[in-house]
DNA sequence: ACAAAACGTTTACAAAAGACAAGAAAGATC
DNA sequence: GATCTTTCTTGTCTTTTGTAAACGTTTTGT
């Protein structure tokens, strides 16, 4: 099961077998049902997750409404980074939208790995580089494109999540209301 | 002049004097006039910059219009990260809005430092963690808040750049037009 | 100091998005 | 399979934003 994880790490650094053993001993495999909250409101987390299968979102509650800020579906790390790094409670909730298979990495174990495995800093650095580029692209999308263009790009780049995530969550993720997304979809259909 | 830089690094890791010597030998101090383009359109860059004094923005050109996506004013790294990391030409232009004092770090030198200075990976990892958290906050701002709220937050969190950056650049940075920002400012003035 | 360019605001109109409410459709639960 | 909940769509109205153009002011360059 950690095969998938090491296929991922391999894109960044080549861990030795010994490194991998240390990593495996720090990772815990978990399966959780849909609607599980990995991080709850105001919770201070001490764990990072690697999503093997399933679908997860992050959301805020603003004026009683849930505003989705992130959706992910495949191999990748997820966690309340600000809470972990800065040691503060998380304002964001991390919720599984489907049954999920996860690897859990506690912050204490990660910190230990930074000491034991020299490649670990390089690995996480490269992961962060990738995440950063992705975030930058998403942010540019908001600055450059209007909601309709954003929806069309999401449609072309990630048609899969449109099937797996309720539309009202996608709407807030695009920075608009569910009503507005429904109308945008109608507009697009009428054009085509 | 590198004092300021090491005051910054010190927030993340404690480089030895030997480390610092290696770093200093890799860094080049430059002063450039306003309007200098550190990275031009479609240019493949091989350098990272640390801004000591001055003000810099990143922008895209879309439909003939300049859309500002990032503004920074003080100690921090800036560069076309995607271009450097992925080795592709940059679609974003990086421009100095004021005369700037910069430290230049070539990618080749950075890669060498990763070999020579073990702390370097940790340092950049921690820098990236910080940058990532900042990006996440900015992105949340776009998803959670409307343009007026975004302007008010910018006003409260970074009143300084309102003085240093033309309004039409701030407008696109907030994801709106200059006309709209002018209206928002008027609305706020009338309320108060 | 002068001319040119850049900047900020305003206006009128069109397009889009939000708020609110009512229904239809789809899914979950038992 | 009937019920209940969630999700999606639609309608009406209001607010906000975009577009385009005009105008005065400020800044810049020489």
UniProtKB/TrEMBL annotation, chains A, B:
It comes from the Bacteria. InterPro entries: cNMP-bd_dom, cNMP-bd_dom_sf, RmlC-like_jellyroll. Residues 11-113 form the Cyclic nucleotide-binding domain. This is Crp/Fnr family transcriptional regulator.
């Amino acid at each position: 099961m950690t095969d998938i994880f090491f296929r991922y790490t391999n894109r960044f650094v080549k861990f030795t077998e010994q490194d991998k053993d240390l990593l495996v001993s720090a990772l815990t495999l978990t399966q959780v049902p849909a609607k599980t909250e990995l991080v709850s409101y105001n919770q201070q987390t001490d764990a990072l997750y690697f999503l093997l299968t399933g679908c997860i979102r992050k959301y805020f509650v603003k004026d009683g409404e849930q505003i989705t800020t992130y959706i992910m579906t495949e191999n990748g790390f997820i966690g309340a980074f600000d809470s972990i790094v800065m040691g503060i409670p998380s304002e964001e909730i991390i919720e599984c939208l489907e049954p999920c298979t996860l690897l859990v990495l506690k912050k204490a174990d990660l910190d230990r790995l930074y000491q034991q495995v020299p490649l670990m800093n390089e690995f996480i650095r490269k992961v962060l580089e990738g995440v950063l580029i992705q975030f930058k692209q998403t942010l540019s999308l908001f600055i450059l494109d209007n909601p309709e263009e954003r929806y069309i790009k999401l449609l072309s780049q990630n048609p899969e999540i449109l099937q797996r995530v309720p539309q009202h969550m996608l709407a807030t993720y695009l920075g608009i209301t569910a009503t507005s997304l429904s109308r945008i979809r109608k507009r697009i259909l009428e054009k085509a």
